Amino acid sequence: MGDETDNPWGDVTGRWCEQYSKIVIPNGQSYQHALYPGISQKQQLQSFNTRSNGSWPFAVEWSGAYLAIAMANKLMATLDDPSSTIRFTKNADTKKKTLKTWALWWKGYMYSRVGSMYISGLIVNEFGKSNGNYVDRPSVMAEATRNFDEALSILSSLPQDDSYNEIMTSIVPDFNDNAKIVSPDMWTRMINTYKARNILVAKKITDMTPTDWTNIVALASTGLQSSDNIFTLGMTPNDLNGLTAGFHPYQNCNDANAFMLASERLIQEFKPGDSRLNKNFHILSEPYVNVQGRGWTFGTRYGFVDIEEGGSFATAQNLGQWPITPTYEENQLMLAEAKIRMGNTDEGLTYVDAVRAYQAAGIGLVSGTGLTQAQALEELRIERRIGLFLRGVAFYDARRWGVIAPESQGGGRTGAKIMVPAAVYDPEADGLPGAYPCYIEYNYMDYWDIPTIELDFNKPTLGSVPTKS
Length: 469
Prior knowledge:
This protein is about 40% helix and about 10% strand. It is built from 17 helices and 12 strands. A 4-stranded antiparallel beta sheet has the order 3-2-12-11. Strands 1-7 form a two-stranded antiparallel ribbon. Strands 4-5 form a two-stranded antiparallel sheet. Strand 2 and strand 3 form a beta hairpin. Helix 4 crosses helix 6. The longest helix has 26 residues. The model has no long low-confidence stretch (mean pLDDT about 95).
């Protein structure tokens, strides 16, 4: 929904998540979605939120988050249980603290995901139990912070000894590259970066305060460094014993699978000479146009270069590690945005340049060139789109920047490249469609409803906040 990839297929209601409200082509003609004219994404997705439909897509992230929270609660309870039959060799204290940090990290991570995506959430701290007290997003984010801070407290004195390394290589699967151990210091910086992200994505730009930007700078200044290891998601060679069951992001982007297509709105962000374009994308022998009649945004001239061929985001051989966590680049671009919005425009641009250098973009510096704040923010926007591609933040950005808002509230995107069928753009035309600069009114939901498969079995108690937007 951040419009960096397109998913035209019905699996897990993917295509309905991208149901735009309107497209206006350059000649001024306006078109609603051909299959569902007048029906917004919100209306469509809410119609699926039934038990008979499995509450897709609302159930996907919710179910995964609370399953992980439950497992983390179970681990913590076991570690604290004096009657537990678990016995540790060597340095038992380090091992128990490492495992507790692991549980706290995942609770902080998952509460962050819930608070960033849903209208409300549950705070559950006991395995096998739940409650009907649905709380608002700030409260969910506060719980994420509480768990992160408790993890930071342990990490501040946790040694990276043989016992620590033994636990870390045991709990991280080998196909997730467990040879690159995340040290306590790296873990600390990773949490600081995540806490900065939580501040950034929690509000619309118009609601951000000077204190918010100051806090982001403080956290990101002690956040991830370019040499840090982070937690990643890989695949087993045959993908039969991994965690993704054929739905790893890099598998989805492979041209043969074509589950996710490269959005023309992403491609148009690249500046001339940016080496990342040719490294990661190639021209298709035949473009996709209005795939199966499911909407004009489902079209592109570009495919992905596989990792085994030198690319970064696709594979036909189950290769590559996708970042589960925030990254160094995200950390730098949060510093960039905060500095620019605080009035330190040129200093902020140095972080944009740092990310481009780190990714070997090969384009000129923008710091020291006299850009205005508005121009600097445009560089920042472009770089977050390109430099953080497939990092899970594009929708958050579109929401906080107002792109997904209705046209009546200033939302949408002008000059958005779309593969418009030739006969639509010019009934007299004969030949291939073109990528034309259009206006798109996305009109997407800001925050998702609680899935009915939760509500039907765990009804809100008195005092709960709304569970539907």
